[in-house]
Amino acid sequence: MASEDVKGARDTAVEKIVNLAEEAKLARHDIKPTSHAVLSICKSLVAGGVAGGVSRTAVAPLERLKILLQVQNSHSMKYSGTIQGLKYIYRTEGFKGLFKGNGTNCARIVPNSAVKFFSYEQASKGILYLYRQQTGNEDAQLTPLLRLGAGACAGIIAMSATYPMDMVRGRITVQTEKSPYQYRGMFHALSTVLREEGPRALYKGWTPSVIGVIPYVGLNFAVYESLKDWLVKTKPLGLVDDNSELGVVTRLACGAAAGTVGQTVAYPLDVIRRRMQMVGWSHAASIVTGDGRSKAPLEYTGMIDAFRKTVKYEGVRALYKGLVPNSVKVVPSISIAFVAYEQVKDLLGVEIRISD
């Protein structure tokens, strides 16, 4: 009996050891996907940040000129066009003037772009999962409308997370040598606005930004991804190689088309956003108030009031001030951002196809 008891105890101990080993093995398998997911998220954020910084720096002079045209006092206009405006900035402020506000813009756009690309991927995966559950088709792919929704979600999240930096970037960008007060940098601008205008001032123009970002970012992603899918499926003019891979030039063209469509639809809201961001600025730059402060900038009670007063006093065309330099800027900017994002993710070894 004693030997049987010893044998039974030994078998029980062996069984427990085997069970523990199996549990440890399962736990190890569970940890791997988690660590892989964290690494993938980090790589995605890095790729998005690099894409944003590279693309915005490449078109910084055009970005600054666009904002100057959007907010300049209509009674004292210094910038009348793209070429004239760039020449005037270079003549009066030098080469550095062409990139004024770019540091703040990059400080904003790097996290903005990182969050935007990452949010788009996660929103796309979630929407695709729900779509497949609803249709009962496990092979279903995202439609252009669903991509539009995913892009809109990504745009709202990214824009809201970094909006205060966009607000102060706008003010720093419109400063000139003749401005009565100078923000010394992003942190100085943030602290000054908080002290003089309160926390709510950091979100002036947020409403038109949210409304504008839905068609802008949504259409960017929807048009870009849909064009890519169409090219891969139809393979027109030999633009796709045998491995169904798009070349850099083709992807640049897809990004250019996406940027053109998105910015054309959302541009009036961008003008209103910039104008609302200048409201309440007691030391407003001379470009906003006009030389000699003979004409003070208009005050707006909200987005609708800003639209109404802009159209009333300056006409409908005022809603498209700066559209030309923005159009010149947005094509390479969006194109470079998409291609840089995909190239960096390729280098980091991350799968970029969302619909697969």
Word description of this protein:
The chain is mainly alpha-helical and 356 residues long. It has helices spanning 2-58, 60-71, 82-97, 102-135, 144-173, 186-197, 206-234, 248-278, 286-289, 303-314, 323-348. α5 (144-173) crosses α6 (186-197), α5 (144-173) crosses α7 (206-234) and α8 crosses α10 (303-314).
Characteristic key phrases:
single chain, 356 residues, mainly alpha, 11 helices, 74% helix, 0% strand, globular, disordered C terminus
Brief overview:
By secondary structure, the chain is mainly α. It has helices spanning 2-58, 60-71, 82-97, 102-135, 144-173, 186-197, 206-234, 248-278, 286-289, 303-314, 323-348.
State the secondary-structure class: mainly alpha
Low-confidence runs of at least 5 consecutive residues: 24-33, 352-356
Element-by-element helix/strand order: HHHHHHHHHHH
Query: Number of helical runs?
Result: 11
The chain-level mean pLDDT equals: 78
Rg calculated over all Cα atoms: 26 Å
**Helix percentage:** over 70%
User: Looking at the chains present, what oligomeric state does this protein adopt?
Assistant: single chain
CA distance, first residue to last residue:
63 Å
What is the approximate shape?
A: globular
Strand content: under 5%
**How does the major sheet shape up?**
none
Number of strands: 0
